[in-house]
Design goal:
Oligomer: single chain
Number of helices: 9
Order of helices and strands: EEEHEEHEHHHEHEHEEHH
Strand order of the largest sheet: 6-7-8-3-9-10
Largest sheet: 6 strands, mixed
Shape: globular
Number of strands: 10
């Protein structure tokens, strides 16, 4: 049988500012998996994901999304990707329904389909009671859910989330996690960074650990355990060991 096309295939990717932020990184994420991307502050996670989302240009290397070379056809790649940052970017003067219809219009989603999808997403995220209220008065948790709905309104195949649960209360966090897991069950690929390691431990099928712009470890939780002294340890124990080992060897 032919080898399935990866959702994301990165080769020798680099980006520097005052120093290397991403340094010759290779990464492959399978279609339909939930991939957790972990690393200490300043490891290069956000820079990496912003390049995948097309928000930053790499200095060198290649990025392929479902076989689409982002350097050759950036627009086609962006059409299948959703990006959700830790700081929701939503227009304060719009209602959630207006915002989703506006975003759907940017992606050229037909108006009837856009409204139906928008209402479904708002209902899914518990936002329908606020569908006609302006976003300017919303809490961060509500804004994050509106931003997530906006990212999903064009039915992306790859969802990239950078610390999406930061600042959310338990109820909002659960709704967001449930939506993401449902999307994975539908065959969508999810890549998420988080400092809440218990979330990655419960949700991610595979986990990658980045330090100083390089992927230093990758695998299932059991596979990562096999690389450390924590045979039955938590992801927190494993993560701290892997990062300390890399720092000591550097």
């Amino acid at each position: 049988m032919p080898t399935p096309v990866p959702a994301l295939d990165i080769h020798n990717l680099s980006k520097s500012f005052d120093r290397p932020a991403v340094d010759g990184l290779d990464l492959t994420v399978r279609a339909g998996e939930f991939y957790g991307l972990l690393g200490p502050n300043g490891a290069g996670k956000t820079t990496l994901l912003r390049m995948v989302a097309g928000l930053l240009q790499p200095d060198s290397g290649s990025i392929s999304i479902f076989g689409i070379d982002t350097a050759r056809d950036a627009i086609a790649a962006k059409r299948v990707v959703a990006w959700v940052s830790d700081e929701p970017m939503v227009y304060d003067r719009l209602t959630p329904l207006e915002y989703l219809q506006f975003v759907a219009g940017l992606w050229e989603v037909p108006a009837g389909e856009a409204e139906a999808t928008a209402r479904e997403l708002l209902d899914w995220l518990g936002l329908m009671p606020h569908a006609d209220e302006r976003c300017g008065g919303f809490s961060k948790g509500m804004l994050q859910k509106v931003a997530l709905a906006g990212a999903l309104v064009h039915n992306p195949r790859l969802i990239i989330l950078d610390e999406p649960l930061t600042g959310l209360d338990a109820g909002a966090a659960r709704q967001v996690k449930n939506v993401l897991l449902e999307k994975v069950r539908e065959g969508v690929t999810v890549i998420m960074t988080t400092h809440i390691l218990e979330v990655a431990e419960r949700m991610a099928e595979r986990i990658g650990v980045i330090a100083k712009g390089r992927l230093i470890a990758e695998g299932t939780l059991d596979e990562l355990r096999g690389r450390t002294r924590h045979d039955q340890g938590s992801l927190e124990d494993i993560f701290l060991d892997l990062v300390a080992e890399h720092s000591a060897a550097a």
